[in-house]
Amino acid sequence: QNVQFIAGQDFNKNPMTTLICKVWGDPKDPDTWGVCVVDEVQTWNSDAYKHGEWLKSEKCRGGRVLYGGVPIVCDSTSCNPDKGGARSGRHNGSSDAKYLVDLGFDIRPAALSPRGAPVNPYILDSISHMHKLMRENRLLIHGTRCPQLLRALEDQQVRANGLPEKVSSTASDRLSSPIDALRYLCWALFAPRAKPAKIEVM
User: Fold this and answer.
1) Cα–Cα distance measured from residue 40 to residue 69, given in angstroms and rounded to the nearest whole number
2) How distant, in Å, are the alpha carbons of 10, 79, 164 from that of 117?
3) Burial class of residue 145 (count of CB atoms within 10 Å of its CB; 0-12, 13-18, 19+)
4) 170 sits in which H/E element
C-alpha cells in the first residue's frame, strides 16, 4: 500500500478522475487535519480497469512519482456490481471499485451506514463541508498540477436550490467530475458521521 498519498475518485466514463492528495496534521487529532490536492489524473473513453492500470503505471507521471496502491475514496454506487457494464466496460457483474482492488488499490466508500453498508453523502452537505474546509484553510489545491479541478470550481453552475447544474453525459457532468472526486474524499476524511444519506447495497 502507498501511504504517501490518499485519493478521491469519480468513476464517470468521460472523464474518470482521480485526485491525488496529501493530508497534514496531528494523526491523533482530526481537528488539526488538512488536505492538499497535489495532482489530478484523468482518462477519457476508458473504463475502471484501464484507468487503474494507467494510474499505477510508471508512464502516468514519467516515473517521477508512483501512485500504485494509493488508498482511494469513491462514491458508494461504484462499490456495487455493475451488471450492465456501462462504466466498467465489462459485463461480468463486478464493480468499478473491485477492478481497482484487483489492481492493488485500497478502495473505500465515502461513508458507511450504521449497518456497515456504503452510503453517499448528501450533495449539499458534502459541498458545504468542502467550502467550510476552504474557509478554514484546511483544503489547498496545487494550481499548476490541478487545472481541471480549478476550472470546475470556477465554472460549475448552481441551481436555485443550491445543487450543482449537472446533466448526465453532458458537458456539465464532465466538468463536475473533479469536484465529485474531491467532495467524496473530504467527506470521508472530515465529515461528522451522524448523518448517513442514501444507502446503497453492495
Assistant:
1) 16
2) 19, 10, 26
3) middle
4) none
User: pLDDT tens digits, residue range 58-72?
Assistant: 889 887 778 999 999
Contact 150, 141 (CB under 8 A): yes
C-alpha cell at 192: 461528522
Nearest CA among 33, 117, 23 for reference residue 70: 23
C-alpha cell at 8: 478521491
pLDDT of res. 199: 46
Instruction: For 78, list phi and psi in degrees, rounded to 5.
Output: -75, -10
Q: Which residues of 85-100 are buried (b: 16+ CB within 10 A; e: fewer)?
A: eebbbeeeebbbbbbb
**This prediction's pTM:** 0.86
pLDDT tens per residue, range 159-169: 888 888 888 77
Amino acid at 45: N
User: How far apart, in whole angstroms, are the C-alpha atoms of residue 7 and residue 144?
Assistant: 18
For residue 152, the SS3 value is: helix
Helix or strand (DSSP H, E) at 111? strand 111-112
Reported as type and span, the H/E element at residue 128 is helix 123-135
The end-to-end CA distance of the chain, in Å, is: 23
Cβ atoms of 135 and 128 within 8 Å: the answer is: no
48: left (phi over 0), alpha (psi -120 to 50) or beta: alpha
Chain mean pLDDT for the chain = 85
